[in-house]
Amino acid sequence: MKKLCVIFVIFSLFIFAGCGGSKSKNKEEAPGPEETVTDDDGSNAADTEPSDEPDTEPTEEPDQDNGDTTPEPSDDDADTIPEQNDNDSDTDSIPSDNDDIEEPQPNLPECTPESEMPCIDSETWLIWSEKTEELNWNDAVTYCEELKEGGYNDWRLPGVDVLLTLLQNCELTPPLESLGCSNSSEEPRSKLGYDTVLWSSSSSYSSDALAANFSNGTTGSKNIDNTYEARCVRIWKENKKATCSNEIPQNADWNSVSVITQTWDWETAQWLPSTTTVFNNETSEAECRFACNSGYQWTETRCSAFPYYDSDSGFTWSSLAPDKISFDEAKSYCSKLNESGYSDWHLPTISELRTLVQNHSGAETGGLCLITDECLSHKDCYLASPQNGCSGYEEDLSGKYSKLGDIYFFWSSSEDPGDYPGSAWSLGFSRGNFIDYDKKQPFKVRCVRK
Predict the structure, then answer these.
(1) Looking at residue 204, what is its pLDDT?
(2) Does 282 map to a domain?
């Protein structure tokens, strides 16, 4: 009997010591009654739960920030956070031709003569690059298209109107703005310092392009073989008001991010059901991202369906070729294209390309410009057009001149008959202007079928 009593006392002490140690440890290390764990580190949740066995403690990892410990959730399906919704369509940051990089919140200096480059002009939300050495016009265009500066790779040579947003300390007297600044100034005419002549992307003729002279505020045509400096430009996408707002383009959905939260309940010793919170980027100040719906493609300004059937003309249009290509490459690309089961595509003639123009009295089919399949001479057709109807309007990057929202130059298959040997006609949709360019020039391409 005495032996049984001794065993009972020892057993009781053992139980008491075990309970006391457990309480002490829980008091120091355990989370509160309910511990919320948010999966935001990009890893899957752990496979194990804390055990219900009396002699087993939950496996805990110390928090590097405050020393607290939290059991890992057992939800094997927890996703990497943040997660973008899966969509077969391309995800687009606007307005961009190139999505190789994610758009960061710009942390750039304000553009001044002393600022480092790239810099941002808060009046226009344009980002400007370092100035180049002197280049001919074609090299300047290529330089900007291939430029990687400040973590960005979607630079372009600015149009003349965009370039003139840098003009300051200049009084222009209507209607003689083309004569330049009417006042004298010892301060630089450019927000970026003492720039002289800078190339623009705006063309006047096949052998000329417009340049801006910041010594006096004038613009004029320069032979494309001349050499001048250039600055490249890009738009801060988050502030492109036409598309980055509380409304998204048609045929698109916000490309949302989601956060999965999981909570451990100590009273029931189990994980509560996980919750998922979805944040739509329409209210985000850091990014403006959406995805075109299935069957639609981003075309610089909108989500459009392709192949696109134009009931006005009876033509069917392809999606954009992946890259800008030369005239010969464009003809070959369209002849070999197989899209949506069709293989009878061709590079459109200039008259066919004009059927895509809208809101433009000069470039629309039957408009003031005389360049058609039947009239391709620069001298007899382009220069003979009434009111210079082939030279286009002021640059507009909203895509309103194209039924498909295009804003760049596109190749046609129509060649110049002899005024400019080795050139073919192209149509620029940002202005509605016609240029007979050298066939080696890379342009955008859409193919057509009847």
Answers:
(1) 53
(2) yes
Q: Identify the pLDDT of residue 123.
A: 79
Strand partners, 54: none
Give just the sign of the alpha carbon dihedral 226, 230, 235, 241: negative
- Of 227, 260, 293, the position where a domain reaches its end is 293
Buried b (16+ CB within 10 A) or exposed e, 307-327: bbeeeebebbbbbbbeebbbb
Q: Which two tokens stand for residue 419?
A: 């005024």
Residues 120 and 108 sit within 8 Å (Cβ to Cβ):
yes
DSSP state of 121: E
* Same domain? 444 vs 313: yes
Q: Are residues 317 and 420 in the same domain?
A: yes
Burial class (CB in 10 A: 0-12, 13-18, 19+), 66: exposed
Provide the sign of the torsion angle of the four alpha carbons 385, 391, 396, 400, taken in this order. Answer: positive
The residue out of 237, 252, 272 marking a domain boundary is 237
Tell me whether residue 200 is in a domain.
Answer: yes
Question: What number of residues does the chain have?
Answer: 450
Range of the domain at 334: 306-449
Query: What's the number of CA atoms in the CB half-sphere (13 Å) around residue 110?
Result: 3
Over the stretch 115-127, which tens digit does the pLDDT of each residue have?
A: 888 999 887 778 9
The answer on 173 and 137 residing in a single domain is yes
DSSP 150-204: TTB---BPPPHHHHGGGB-S----TT-GGG--SS--SS-SBTTBS--EEEEEEEE
Distance CA 302, CA 309 (A): 16
Distance CA 390, CA 383 (A): 8
pLDDT score at 224: 92
Q: State how far the Cα of 291 lies from the Cα of 82, in Å rounded to an integer.
A: 16
Residue 431 has pLDDT above 60, yes or no: yes
